[in-house]
Amino acid sequence: MKKLRVLVLSDEIDRALYDHFDRSMLQDIDMIISCGDLPARYLTFLATMFNGPVLYVCGNHDEKYVTNPPEGCICIEDEIYEYQGIRFLGLGGSRRYKKGPFQYTEVQMEKRIHKLWYPLWRKKGFDVLVTHSPAKDHGDGKGAHEGFPCFNRLIEKYRPSWFFYGHMHLSYDANTPRVSRLGDTSTVNAFGKYVVEVEVPENGDTHRSADGDGGSQLEQ
């Protein structure tokens, strides 16, 4: 079974990928995905140095994306992006805690999901959920770091193979798992950088079982 090697990022620049960049670090990577809260210049740099697609959703600290989004990258907010038969659904932003873009109440996030009913029906679901915030009671925190219950329901209904999210710095809690499970879905906290292998469907079959052992950290 062919696998797509995906480098997921969020919340903190990895100096090895920026200040000390070496092209060999990306030679086995097929796609880069940002789960938010990363400077546009960082993603633009990676898109310049990388031959594959660079996807992103917005974090609550990405206000500058409104006027100066990352160049050469693909925003997948509120849409399903398909690559090699794998369907990626993007829903960025965090819990609303102040005025500003990319912050939502539970009701507002639910409405975003509801508006996706047609592409979800047309694409027959999705394989990878990409968000900034975690799901409720799954690697989340309190207040502005509380997860969205509507993500839990979305995952329960469509049973994607993978759920990539950010927002929760691993430094917040040393016991926070990098990779976990939510029902049938493998979940990854993308803080910093992490590599995941996503199965590429054969014969158009996009309904794959989740593989909790598909991720491995890049060497520093």
TrEMBL record:
What protein name applies here? Calcineurin-like phosphoesterase domain-containing protein
Which segments constitute the Calcineurin-like phosphoesterase domain? 15-169
List the Pfam families hit by this protein, alphabetically: Metallophos
Q: Which GO terms describe its molecular function?
A: hydrolase activity
The cross-references to InterPro entries, in alphabetical order and at most eight, read: Calcineurin-like_PHP, Metallo-depent_PP-like, UPF0046_metallophosphoest
